[in-house]
Hints:
alpha+beta, Four Helix Bundle (Hemerythrin (Met), subunit A), paralog of FGE (formylglycine-generating enzyme), 2 domains, four-stranded mixed sheet, three-stranded antiparallel sheet, 10 helices
Amino acid sequence: xxxxxxxxTPRPHxxxxxxxxxxxxxxxxxxxxxxxxxxxxxxARARTLGLTDCLDEAELxxxxxxxxxxxxxxxxxxxxxxxIWLLRGAGGRPPLRPDLDAVYDAFRTPRADRPALPMLxxxxxxxxxxxxxxxxxxxxxxxPLEGPRLFDGGFVFGMVAQHEQQHDETMxxxxxxxxxxxxxxxxxxxxxxxxxxxAEVLVPEGPSTMGTDDDPWALDNERPAHRLRLPxxxxxxxxxxxxxxxxxxxxxxxxxxxxxxPDGWAQVQRTGMQAxxxxxxEGGGWLRRRxxxxxxxxxxxxxxHVSWYEADAYARWAGRRLPTEAEWEKAARxxxxxxRDLRYPWGDAEPGAEHANLGQRHLQPAPAGAYPAxxxxxxxxxxxxxxxxxxxxxxxxxxxxxxxxxxEYSQVFFGAxxxxxxxxxxxxxxxxxxxVACRATFRNWDHPVRRQIFAGFRTCRSAxxx
Length: 466
């Protein structure tokens, strides 16, 4: 199942007490950790309510696509997970609503079957998540934020905040799939001047670090940090745009099996897809549907709502390839001038509005060439935000991986089949990804057939390749 659905989803399985974590490189006081956790939880809840308060009960209880849960299910699910991990787990408090555990266990019931569950109606769900939050903040105020790994650096609070924000992104995707008038605010993204932006940038050969050991809120699949040495390669300076992708479409890309992985070509034949999801041709031009609005496809924006198979086919057609996730991460965080590997492409400072299109600030990608302040040392831009970027890599553990805080967080998804049933890694986050769940080491994954997610891509070529 997709990354955003399972995050923190299953009930804890009472693992053995975790070993203490090593001291992070960056100092942090308990007061600062509590403040950070409080802010992250509060921001996530405000977004959750904003995505649900704008619709009536019938729309919240409806299933807008079999790929997605009813929005009312997501609303109560984030509260149920918060109760399990923060009230019962971190706080050691008795269950508040144990009867809801089975209803909101994502591993127990596939998304397509969730409308049949005895879900809380929206008003009851809001009351439940509000009561859980009040008690969770009381736990946060008193629990030690050091010692066992679950508490150290406020990890469990960061995990819950990331979980809610990732469900918020899933809920935003449900808004895109629903039919009906626009209900979400839509400020335009900043403009860009791509005139001086090179088509590609060189990432030189040499060592770099992949993953992290010192980010207290990093998740188990981001660990441990390990050194790699990659050959030099050329990387697109920005994600592939709608205009570039339209050339592939109009060149007959969806009618030519040469460009497609066999499983991708089977998907084309089975579904009859001819362009990215939500595109349609009309009057000699292309239109797209976006959150209840129909508008011309903007040539300068990164293409989105494409599957891994579509991204791979475009790259082949263009005489290029998708980067591995190791190549992507090196481009996003390695500074060859200092030898450091950064937390974000621009450095270690938290993301600001000048750096990246994150946090549902806008409801579409910014044009290629936007956010010059967010460019990586290699010169590539928009590596965080705008669109999730497909890589060529299968989702697999790093050397020395240890499952934490439970196997179902990541481990059960490693090597989970091949072809349409396997998982490909996405990197970078989208306009719908909150900064708390977006960093240069963060790993997302999904089935290669998925198109409803806010995914695009960029291509690369090995240095010396024509």
